[in-house]
Structures are given as C-alpha cells and as structure tokens.
Amino acid sequence: MQRRFRGPPTAVIVVVVAVIQVAGSAFATVRQPGHAPLDPLALALLLLGPAALAFRRRAPLVMLPVAAGATAAYLALGYAWGPVVLSFALALIMTAAAGKRAVAWSGAAAGILALFLAAARSGDEAAFVRAFAGSSWLAILVLIGEGVRFRGERVAERRRQEAAAEQAARDEYRLALARDIHDVVAHSLSLINVRASVALHLGEKDPAQFRPALETIKAASRESLAEVRQLLGVLREDAPLSPTSRPSLARVPEVVDNARRAGLDVRFQGGPDLDHVPAAAQEAAYRIVQEALTNVVRHSGARTARVSIHAAKGELLVTIDDDGAGAGTAPDGNGITGMRERVAALGGRLELGPAQSGTGWRVRAVLPLAADAGQGPG
Asked: Is residue 286 a contact partner of residue 251, using CB atoms and an 8 Å limit?
C-alpha cells in the first residue's frame, strides 16, 4: 500500500523559512531606513520562528505560540516589516492541519486583535484597512489548514477502507483455500481408508484384492499430495493467489471413479455445453460432488449413488442422490459448511434432504451462471 504523503521534510521547511526570513528582512531593513537595524536579537527572533516549525509533528501546541511570540516581539521592537510573518503564517496552517482547531483560531484571533490595536495606536485610517485585510488573511490561513486536515482525513479513511477490503479479500481467499484443503484431504483419506479396510478384510480370503486396493491408495495419495502442496504453496505466498490448475467439471469423472474404487456403485450424467460454465461455478460444482460422494462413502452406508450435472435457464444444477441413511438430524460438519459457503459465495442455494424417491438422501446445488456470478472466491 502506498504511504500517505505528509509534505516536505520538516528540516527542509525550517531551513527554507529561516533563509527567507533572514534574507528578506535584511533587504527590507535596507529599504525601510526608519526602522531599527538588524542586530543579534533581531536575528535570533528571525530564526526562532522557523525553529518553532520543527515541532509541527512532535508538539504542535508549542509551535504556534513560539512562532507568534517571535513575530510579535520582532515587530514590537521596531524592526523593519517584512517576511518575518512567514513562520507565523505557516504555524497557523500547520496547527489547523494537525487538528488543533482551538489553538489555531485562538492564534488567529490574537493576531487580529494585535493588528487592530496597532491600527488604533497609529491613528491612521489606512492602518484599519490594512488591519482588516490582515485579519482576513489570518482567517484564510486557518481555513487552508482546515482544508488540508479534511483532505488528509479523507485520504486516510479511503486508504483504511482499501486496506480493510484487501485484508477481507485475503481472509476470504484463505478461507476458500482451507475449504479446498479439507475437501482434498477428506476425500482422499476416506478413499484410502475404505480401500485399506477392504484389503484387510478380504486379503486373506481373496489376495487378489490387495493389488487394486494398493493401486487406488497410491493414486489417491499422489493426487491429494499434489493438490495439497499447491494449496499450501499459496498459503506460504510462494505461488500466485490464483493457482494455475483449478478443479473443473472435466475432472468430475475422476471423483466418480474414485468413489467406485471405494465400492460405491455410482452413475454419472452430465449435460451438454458444460464447457461454457464459468470457472468459479465449475470449481464449486466439482467440490460439491467431491464432498457429497465423500460423505456417502464415509457415513451413509449407501451402495449406489447418482450424480447429475446440467445447465438450464442460466443455472447449473448439481444433484447427488444415494440410497443411504443420509445425515438425518446430525449437525453440519466442516464439509457441509464448506459446501454452503461455496454456494453462498456464488449467490446460489444448497438443498439437503431425503431423495424424491422417498429412500436415500439428496444433495442439490443451484448455481447461477450470470456473468458476475463467477466472481466469488474459489
């Protein structure tokens, strides 16, 4: 994130103002012979005002009184009128910009009072005109500082909102990655567990079961390790925030085959034109099928399942039916929660309940295919 612009360095301001005040006052003294010549005290006062500006960030409440006092003392001692007021003017602006409104307006009021008192003492009508003009400028200087402060607050607020939005997006993306890791690990370990159990149960009676089981375990572990390695690489920020290989509907048959290897009789039916489905909807559908079949294999006791994916009327319909016991009244686990979050991120809906046949369980997701529906987190 870009750093907030805070103006020129304080040291530069102090040096520039000091040079202007000393050089300008020396020139003004030459052009105004009726005033006292510059002496060490005058030079000290000319440098004291700029030196006060060094406190603009550390102690803004000190800056204005010191600058005002140095300016007032310089003029009261009869030195030539000139750029000595520059440090006081900048102190007014900086004090108001720092949010010290009461101090800034009090300083301006004190300056206005001093101008009119000086005009009254001079008895010159033109002096009152000059006092009025000077008073107007003092008020304008404070308003300039107020404007600088207001703009700075708006910029800071905008940057805070941008930072909060960026952090929220990162948090959401990492939540999506956590769901991905859960889905990959749960699916693969479930398949490995089932095949290992089958091999152990039937190994002595039918040794031929060992090889298919070990091949299934090998394939499942290799695939899951590859996906988990990629996802963890993103979490470590060793990879871009958008991994190059994201699950799609073309990989759903792999999930179906894995479920079949676990002993589940699965039928898959996919509609036409699924290649045109937005990538976010394809990934969500893939993960929903993966999680649903994982739950069927692990928990439902089902023997058969049917997976159906169709696109119609601007929606992608994903349905998984099985003949098992279903979830019943059990609370949602991480997998079900993850499915709900994926569907909600795309503005769709998830339906869980008994199958229409009256026996078994159904998981049905409806994902919108609008152009902006694919912008949810993957």
From this structure: yes
Backbone φ, ψ for residue 19 (5° rounding)? -65, -45
Cβ neighbors of 225 (< 8 A, separation 6 or more) are none
Residues near 95 by beta carbon (within 8 Å), at least 6 away in sequence: 60, 61, 63, 64, 103, 104, 107, 145
The packing angle between helices 252-261 and 125-202, to 10°, is 40
- Residue 215, CA distances (Å) to 12, 222, 241, 247 in order: 73, 11, 33, 23
**In the predicted model, is pLDDT for residue 136 greater than 60?**
yes
Q: How far apart are CA 351 and CA 344, in angstroms?
A: 12
Model confidence band, residue 1 (pLDDT cutoffs 50, 70, 90) = very low
* Per-residue pLDDT tens over the stretch 36-76: 888 889 899 999 988 988 888 888 888 888 988 888 898 88
How would you write the chain as a 3-class SS string?
A: CCCCCCCCCHHHHHHHHHHHHHHHHHHHHHHCCCCECCCHHHHHHHHHHHHHHHHCCCCHHHHHHHHHHHHHHHHHCCECCCCCHHHHHHHHHHHHHCCCHHHHHHHHHHHHHHHHHHHHHHCCHHHHHHHHHHHHHHHHHHHHHHHHHHHHHHHHHHHHHHHHHHHHHHHHHHHHHHHHHHHHHHHHHHHHHHHHHHHHHHCCCCHHHHHHHHHHHHHHHHHHHHHHHHHHHHHCCCCCCCCCCCCCHHHHHHHHHHHHHCCCEEEEEECCCHHHCCHHHHHHHHHHHHHHHHHHHHHHCCCEEEEEEEEECCEEEEEEEECCCCCCCCCCCHHHHHHHHHHHHCCCEEEEEECCCCCCEEEEEEEECCCCHHHCCC
β-pairing verdict for 304-312 and 265-270: parallel
- For the cut 80, the answer to whether the pLDDT of residue 274 exceeds it is yes
Asked whether the beta carbons of 364 and 355 are under 8 A apart, the reply is no
The answer to whether residue 184 scores a pLDDT higher than 80 is no
Higher-pLDDT residue of 30 and 180 is 30
